[in-house]
Amino acid sequence: MKGKLYKKLIAGAMAVIMAITLCQTLAGLPTETDVVEAATSVSGVSQVSNMPSDFARGVDISAITALEKAGASYYYLDGTSGDIFDILAGAGVNYVRIRIWNNPYDSSSPYKGYGGGNCDLYNAKVLGKRATDAGMKVFIDFHYSDFWADPAKQFAPKAWKDYSLAYKKDAVYNFTYQSLKELLDYGVNVGMVQIGNETNGSMCGVGGSYDGVWDLSSGVAALMQQGCYAVDDINKAYGRSMLKVLHFTDFLEHGKWYAECLNKMGVNYDVFATSYYPMWHGSTSDLATNLNYIAQTYNKKVLVAETGYPHTFNNADSTGNNIGSSSSMNYYDYAVTADGQAKALRDVFAAVAQVNSSKWGYGLGAFYWEPAWIAVNSSTWGSCGSGWASSSSGNYERLYSSSVQYYSTSDVGTSWDNMTLFDWGGKAMKSLYVFNDIRGAASKTSSGSSSSGSSSNSSSSLAGTYYIKSYYSGKYLDVTNNSSANGANIQQWQYLANTAQRFKLVDAGDGYYYIYTGASNYTKVVDVSGRSTADGANILQYSFNGASNQKFKIVEVKTGVYAILTGVTSGNSCLDVYNWSTANGGNIAQWSYWGGDCQLWYLEKYSN
């Protein structure tokens, strides 16, 4: 009897579970199959409640094609190499945002790209397919410009320069429709479509910046509606349900007003999206309050389309950063560290998810802007489009202005290298894993192979004795006068094949090495003088003590070429041929890593 009763109870319980699961599925709530096993938080942040199973945990990586072309490589938390999309997916990213410019290339030969990733439709197709193949959805961001569009500038594409509003309406519709058709035909899983980028009263050469009318009534709303019509028609043709997104910024100051303007103009859209950066825009509690107001008042879903936060004030290249010091920040609610960055991102997700506590399914998620835009070699800024702007971008601005104010007349690097979720060597920082940690899911922090740093090189396989040759000067690391004394200087010198130029890499754990010197018969090591973290700190030989200033991370930045990052700066600086010297005796110093040729090295294996 006890056995029969037990079976009846189990059967009844299973029926209840199945009924609950069905109700959850119909309501869009997480089901039993959506529940993930709780895991130790890699980033250190706590879980977030009120997230539906399809809550967007997204990133914008529009520039990644240009960065990879420029030699950027990416690594898991443990230093093993991997494809960027695999690394992101393993950290919990389920959505990718990709911007599209109409024609981001100069109009005359050699048709140089404007930079910023040269993000045309073809780039979006390639990246969108890679994201789709990695199991992610894609959020397409139309700027309706040939280069960056934001509240300060909304230049129409070159081809539309002389169009009337009526022609621009047709152009927006046709460009949106045809682009989405190509993306879907290419196999890209588009889930959301953004009609304009940070369109605070202006868009495509129309509105406040151009006629002084900021309430969208002089043509901006009409252009937005044409983009929405195109999405509606593509949805019908392909049996899709892509969401129509409108995007603004300065949300806490102007968001409610723009939502009211859209309502008055009768624009038929699905999602009100905003850029929100904690260091510029205010508290996440105010963000949650205003998002909830729009969801409740206008029955619109809400989304943070862009967010980000610095992990350091240091700069990795010669281009100044958007956030270079605390004076660049309006609000300082989080530490400028990887921990502070993780906490800021977690709180943004929580603010959006809070909307779901009162209107389920209306808080859609958030996207971190360009988390992989690390500094790369300056020679690629213009040739690959890996910098935020190239010298040709100014030509585009001159079509609309007598001077170049917003773009550039020279090739420049990234102003975002201290805002990334990867360190300057391309290795995932723990803040990347917020995407899984907010839902209590286990993350993939390793490729599962034995590789470290890049391709086939691991801590064990790099261990050994080498001559270390400068990629820039062709000369070799050398202990001055082959001295065995503490404080002997490390310099560069022509190849001599003697013990002064032999260095033994010994695994120090956590992806770092000690570099023992042949001049000391491998009893002393390469050392950053005085444990300094400053640019220009001298590199010398000293007795082994195991401190961080004697640890170095060897990162392969392109095939057979390495950066030697210093442990005392947590990998933010590196061994650098000081002042671009090509001379015998040229000094070796520590300098912020930015990927210049003077910071790159060959490892030439020594064998007896």
General description of the model:
This protein is an alpha/beta fold. Helices cover 27% and strands 19% of the residues. It is built from 15 helices and 22 strands. It has helices at 2-27, 64-69, 84-90, 121-133, 165-185, 208-211, 220-238, 251-265, 278-281, 284-298, 338-354, 380-383, 393-397, 434-437, 459-462; strands at residues 56-60, 95-100, 137-142, 190-195, 202-203, 206-207, 243-248, 271-275, 301-307, 363-369, 464-470, 476-479, 490-493, 503-509, 512-517, 524-528, 539-543, 552-558, 561-566, 573-577, 588-592, 601-605. The strands form six sheets. It has an eight-stranded parallel beta barrel, surrounded by six helices. Strands 19-18-15-14-11-22 form a six-stranded antiparallel β-sheet. Strands 5-6 form a two-stranded antiparallel sheet. A hairpin with a 2-residue loop joins strand 18 (552-558) and strand 19. Helix 10 packs parallel to helix 11. It is elongated and about 80 Å long. The N and C termini lie far apart (81 Å). The relative contact order is 0.12. The model is unreliable at 1-38 and 449-460 (pLDDT under 50).
